[in-house]
Design brief:
By secondary structure, this protein is of the alpha/beta class. Helices cover 42% and strands 15% of the residues. It comes from Chromobacterium phragmitis.
């Protein structure tokens, strides 16, 4: 592995390439470092299944033939001992890898804690063992580890980048398992050059709104489009922290090239001042749905209640429809993120990135584009081009 002028030449190990963030990072990694090759660790019941999953990610990444030729399939599982590889293959891989981007994670909030740990903590442990082997032979070795801003759990107040455990409890097994995984990574920082990244809720990239994985906001959008959201169970004034995928990827690549980022943890978040309230987000959602109809009449925006107020503020008919709706299951999963906001400290990180020309995109514009992309590509409606031809498409109010 050589690092000259910030350019990587050699092999980069990338986990999570088939996820929403990995498919955005891959093309940027290849284009920023034209002399590197990427070993994409990919799960699959068979090598053919793993190859198919990787090909779908490469298609989403819009890679050309020369770029595809620089990506090789590594069939395995990041949470298995030695990634499920033979000892000889594992050591051979370690001998040529000088950069690791560990993005793979299970983001299923409903998994039991043991299963979340198997996916997130075990994978971190295996990646760290691999990095320990790889770092012995690589002068410029680096590990880039993607955590989550929500390792803060249920804590409130100002949430700082250099804090981890302050006695907090967690909203689900995902948060706790990512917290435990970050503990392992921080302990390894004494012997490995690494950087930790904590993104918040990732939405589509900011120029086209493209996104590979649809969860969180997009699950509510899907229900709204189908008229299956009889009420809005959210604090209208709370501001969820949403961040575009391209901002996260550009930030990681920037800090990866910065020797001063070794041993640091960065909140890749929007911050409260740049975040939108639920009232504004859902209002925009329903405006977008109306704008995609030729008559301009989309589903009516339902009344919004704080989740804890729902049972005594909603009408009997609203409650009846709610209890029959898939929204009830979504509320069980996401309630903790709908009833309050988190104040992630990110000013210094944003200022550092801005000096490098990496500015946080406008969140409202990115969300608007992302909603249009999701509706067109995922939910079976005509794309934004069709809405534009009808005169319905417009910028957010």
């Amino acid at each position: 592995m050589n690092l000259t002028g910030g350019k990587i030449s050699g092999t980069v190990l990338l986990t999570g390439v088939t996820g929403g963030l990995g498919a955005e990072l891959l093309p940027r990694l290849l284009r920023r470092h034209p002399d590197c090759e990427v070993a994409a660790l990919t799960r699959g019941g068979t090598p053919r299944q793993a190859q198919d999953r990787l090909e779908a990610a490469l298609d989403f990444a819009r890679l050309g033939p020369e770029e595809r030729a620089r990506v090789s399939l590594l069939h395995g599982d990041v949470s298995h001992p030695r990634f499920g590889l033979s000892d000889a293959d594992w050591r051979a891989l370690a001998s040529r890898v000088g950069r690791v981007f560990h993005l793979a994670a299970s983001v299923d909030f409903d998994l039991p804690l043991a299963e979340s740990r198997a996916a997130n903590v075990d994978s971190a442990r295996e990646v760290l063992a691999f990095c320990g082997e790889a770092a012995r032979g690589m002068r410029d070795f680096r590990l880039n580890y993607v955590s989550t801003a929500y390792v803060s759990g249920r804590r409130r107040g100002r949430l700082m980048e250099d804090e981890l455990y302050l006695g907090q409890t967690f909203c689900n097994g995902y948060e706790q398992s990512k917290f435990e995984a970050e503990q392992l990574v921080r302990q390894a920082a004494a012997r490995l050059p690494l950087t930790i990244y904590r993104p918040s809720q990732i939405i589509g990239e900011s120029s086209e709104g493209r996104i590979r994985k649809f969860f969180g906001y997009y699950e509510f959008l899907k229900l709204a489009e189908r008229g299956r959201m009889p009420v809005l169970p959210a604090d209208p004034l709370a501001r969820p922290d949403l961040v575009p995928a391209d901002y996260v990827c550009e930030a990681m690549l920037h800090f990866d090239a910065d020797p001063g980022a070794v041993g640091r943890c960065y909140h890749l978040t929007a911050g409260l001042e740049r975040s939108l309230s639920f009232e504004r987000i859902f209002s925009q959602m329903y405006r977008e749905l109306a704008a995609r109809r030729l008559d301009g009449k989309g589903p009516a925006k339902p009344r919004m209640f704080r989740p804890e107020e729902l049972e005594w503020m909603a009408s009997p008919e609203e409650l009846r429809r709610f209890h029959l709706s898939p929204l009830k299951l979504l509320l069980r999963t996401y309630r903790a993120y709908l009833e309050s906001e988190r104040d992630f400290d990110c000013e210094a990180t944003q200022a550092s990135l801005a000096r490098a020309g990496i500015a946080l995109p406008d969140i409202e514009s990115a969300l608007w584009l992302s909603a249009g992309y999701a509706l067109g590509a995922r939910f079976g409606q005509t794309g934004r081009a069709g809405a534009a031809r009808s005169g319905a498409a417009r910028q957010p109010a």
